[in-house]
Amino acid sequence: LTAADNAVTFKSVVKTVAARNGLFADFSPKPLPDKSGNGMHINLSVHAENGKDYTEAFMAGILAHIQEITAFLNPVEESYLRFGELKAPKYISWSPENRSQLIRIPAAKGQYRRIELRSPDPEANPYLAYALLIRAGLAGIKENLVPPRPLNRNLYKAAADVLQGIEMLPASLDEAKKLAGNSSFVRSI
What integer pLDDT is reported at residue 53 of this predicted model? Predict the structure, then answer.
């Protein structure tokens, strides 16, 4: 809840400070067609009281449900113009080494270990986004899910044969809404 409050407050403060200085702060996903868009990478850490590391199962839950919840993480049509361009992810993949993946595992260890989800953008409602991500991760733990093997390759420069068979994020808001609308997981939340 505090993280969501902070995300909302941050945007409000930046817009206010910009306006006071005669500027406009734009948090839209793709303000300039030929430039990188605005992402809202979400970092999640999983710490259990019993000391067991559930990070991989949590991540597997997010990967398993990402297509269904993308409409909430990327809620405007402009959101989908970012995917697959200029360092924004397009494929449902993960890696501890490469920033072209949907989920990156930074090098941090111990209590600082986390997963970084790179698809959400600032148009997302952080309260809904965090709730869905937490529930997806918890489903991964409950169901003992195991993530696919990491893709330690730059997917922006990968050959077509490497990309073949890798699931992708929805290509449009309409596609994302249909996936969400047909999702028993989303309906349960």
Answer: 83
Q: Residues 94, 65: contact at Cβ < 8 Å?
A: no
Give the other-Cβ count within 10 Å of 110's Cβ: 7
Residue 43: phi and psi, rounded to 5, are -100, 130
Contact status, residue 79 vs residue 173, Cβ threshold 8 Å: yes
Pair of tokens at residue 99: 């920033």
Contact criterion met (CB below 8 Å) for 88 and 39:
yes
**Range 156-176 average pLDDT:** 88
User: Is the distance from CB of 48 to CB of 160 less than 8 angstroms?
Assistant: no
> Where on the phi/psi map is residue 169: left (φ > 0), alpha (ψ -120 to 50), or beta?
beta
For the chain, the farthest-separated pair of C-alpha atoms sits apart, in whole angstroms, at 52
CA-CA distance, 47 to 127, in Å (whole number)? Answer: 21
- In three-state secondary structure terms, 39 is coil
What pTM did the predictor assign? 0.89
